[in-house]
Every structure is written in structure tokens, then in C-alpha cells.
């Protein structure tokens, strides 16, 4: 009768258990690695979106600040008159209408994918708050600016500045009507610039937080 070696059975059992444990640990490591990679992919994509917004807002602040200087120059009674070329440039600025559109593709994607829980809770809260209200001020002032542009700027351009059909009527800048309309438009523009700067700063703040959460 063959003698059973319990020691051999025990060693074999340990080998099997160890193998299972190693395989399980390796599987967990692989899953965690995939999760971390997906986590960082979403965060990096959101950083890229914010980079786009920040660059766009920076460009708008610079352009609109230059426009505001030109408008104030037109309204100034103490400055010498502008040349015809400068007036044409000024009226081209008055006739331009710029607006900001946020690039929020990643935010909408991660919401709809059900992967939002991959991110830290505080980060999720800050992201939601930013995309729900970070640019609200921009939307609000742009709507007022656009309304004033449609109702006041376009009519005065069509009827007074270019109404003769022979190019720019430079005498329009002397009228009280024009000065009142451009003064209000300049006020809205100054508020628009402030809103762009605020949105720019909030986007930078969120971007720093996102970078700190990369694994």
C-alpha cells in the first residue's frame, strides 16, 4: 500500500494558492493600471479643452481691449482728430461682433459615459460648478452686448455712418446720437472684457487642479 505524503500535498496546495494569489494580484494591478490610465486620459483631455478656452479668452481680451481704446479715442474731445484710415479701422472695429464658445467636449463625454466617478469627489464638484456657472457672466454680458449691437450699432452704421452710399461719413462722429450709442456700447464692452478675464482666471484655476490630480 502506497504511503500518502501529506507534506507533498501541503506543498502543492501552497503552490496552487500562491499561484492564484499572484494571478489575482496581477489582475488587480492590471485593472488598476487601466483605470488610472483612463482617469488620466479624461483629465488630460479636459486640460486640453481648458487650454483652448484659455487661449481663446486671452485672444478676446487683447482684441476687445484694443477696440475699447479705439472707441474711447473716438469719444474723446481732447484728442486730435483721427485720420481717415484710422477712422475706417475704428468703424471696422465697431462693426465687428466677437463671442466666446467654450470647448466642453470632454466634460460632456465623461458625463454621458458614466465614468465621472473615476475622478476625485471634490474635483467632480469643482468641474461641474465650473461648467455650470464659470462662464455664466460671459453669456450674460454677451447677450446684452449683442442686443445693443443689433438694436443700436447696426442701425447707426447703416443709416448714419454709411447711409450715403459713398463710403464712411466721418461727420457722424460729431453727432450726440453717435456718441451716446458708442458710449453705451463701450460700457458693455468694458464689462465683456471683465467677464472674459474672470472666465480666464477660473479656467486657469481648474486647470491647475486637474494637473494636480494626474496620477
UniProtKB/TrEMBL annotation:
Transmembrane helix listed as a keyword: yes
Q: What organism is listed for this UniProt entry?
A: Fulvivirga lutea
* The entry's keywords: Membrane, Transmembrane, Transmembrane helix
Q: Which residues cross the membrane?
A: 6-26
The question of whether Transmembrane is a record keyword is answered with: yes
State the name under which the record lists this protein: Uncharacterized protein
One of the Pfam families matching this protein, by short name? DUF6090
Amino acid at each position: 500500500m502506497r504511503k500518502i505524503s501529506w507534506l507533498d500535498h501541503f506543498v502543492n496546495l501552497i503552490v496552487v494558492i500562491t499561484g492564484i494569489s499572484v494571478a489575482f494580484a496581477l489582475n488587480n494591478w492590471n485593472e488598476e493600471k487601466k483605470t488610472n490610465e483612463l482617469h488620466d486620459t479624461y483629465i488630460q483631455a479636459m486640460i486640453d479643452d481648458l487650454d483652448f478656452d484659455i487661449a481663446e479668452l486671452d485672444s478676446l481680451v487683447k482684441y476687445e481691449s484694443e477696440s475699447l481704446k479705439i472707441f474711447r479715442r473716438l469719444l474723446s474731445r481732447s484728442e486730435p482728430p483721427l485720420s481717415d484710415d484710422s477712422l475706417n479701422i475704428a468703424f471696422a472695429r465697431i462693426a465687428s461682433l466677437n463671442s466666446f464658445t467654450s470647448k466642453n467636449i470632454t466634460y460632456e463625454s465623461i458625463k454621458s459615459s458614466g465614468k465621472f466617478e473615476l475622478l476625485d469627489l471634490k474635483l467632480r464638484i469643482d468641474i461641474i460648478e465650473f461648467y455650470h456657472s464659470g462662464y455664466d457672466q460671459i453669456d450674460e454680458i454677451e447677450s446684452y452686448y449683442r442686443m445693443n449691437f443689433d438694436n443700436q450699432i447696426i442701425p447707426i452704421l447703416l443709416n448714419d455712418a454709411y447711409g450715403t452710399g459713398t463710403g464712411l461719413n466721418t461727420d457722424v462722429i460729431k453727432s450726440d446720437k453717435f456718441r451716446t450709442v458708442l458710449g453705451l456700447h463701450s460700457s458693455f464692452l468694458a464689462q465683456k472684457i471683465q467677464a472674459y478675464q474672470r472666465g480666464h482666471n477660473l479656467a486657469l484655476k481648474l486647470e491647475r487642479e486637474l494637473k494636480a490630480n494626474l496620477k
